[in-house]
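Final paragraph of the annual report: two paired records, presented back to back.
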Amino acid sequence: MRTTFLLLLAALALAAWNFWLAPDNRTKVEGGDSPSGFVVIGPGRGLPADTVIIMAPPNCSSPAGQRARELTRQLSEKGIPNIIRAEFRLDMNPDEEGFAEVARQMKRVFESESPPVLINRMGGANPTLEEIVAEYRAD
C-alpha cells in the first residue's frame, strides 16, 4: 500500500511540474510514435535493455496489478524477458535539449490507464500483449 501511495505521489508531482513546464500537453515528440503505439520517453536509469518493464507496485491486488502479473506470465510464455518495477528514474537533466518533449511524452504514458510499459526508451500506456510483443520485436 505504501508503494502505491509513493508511486501515485511521484506521478502527481510529475504531472504538476509538467503542467507549469508545458501548458500545451498535446505536443508530441516529432516522429516519436511507433507503429505499435509506443512513444519515445528517453533513457531510464537502472532499466535493463531489451527487457519489457511493466510499471506496477509488486503484489498489488488492483485490476491494474492483476493485469501486470498476467502480462508478465504471457510474456514469459513467449520467451520475452520482463520485470515488474514500481519506479524508475529518468536519466536526463531538465536543462538538456528535448527534456520538455520527453516530459510531455512521459505524462502521456503515465497519466493514462495502468499499467504503463517501458521497452528500450519507449513507453506505452496500458498496451495490449500484441502491442508489447510488436514493440519488443521492432528492433
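The closing record of the year follows.
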Amino acid sequence: MGIPILSEIERLINEHGSAVILKERLALAADQYSALQKQVAQLQSENERLSLDYEECQKQRMALEEKISYLTAQQEWAEEAGALFRKNADGTWNETPYCPSCKTAMVSPGRHELFRCGKKSCGQFASFKGIGLGDVMCRLPS
C-alpha cells in the first residue's frame, strides 16, 4: 500500500506527461497534414499543366501526321503535260495517266488523239496524244 497523496501526485504526473506527448504528436500530425495538403495542391497544379501539354502535343502530332500524309501523297503522284502519274511500289512510274481533277484513269481512243478523263462528266484533257506517252514518261522525275 502506498501513500495516497503520492499516488495522486504520480497520477497527475502521468496524466500531465501523457497530455504533453499527445499534444506534441497532434502538432506533428497537423504539420504532416499541412505538408500533404501543399503537396496535393502542387501535384494537382502539375497534373493540370501536364494535361494541357498533352492536349497540345496531341494537336501537334495530328498536324504532323496530316503533313506526312500530304507529303507522302505528293511523292506518290507527279503531274506532267496535264496528267497525273502514280508511282509503283518499286519506285517506277505507272504508265497510266490520271485526271488531275478527279484522279480517274485517262484514255486515248487512238494513238493520235489526246488523252481525256475516263469519267465522261469530267471532260478533262491532257496536252499529249497516245503516241506521245513515252516522251511524257521520260520527263517524270526519277
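The helical segments are 4-76, 133-138. This concludes the annual technical report; the extension proposal builds directly on these records.
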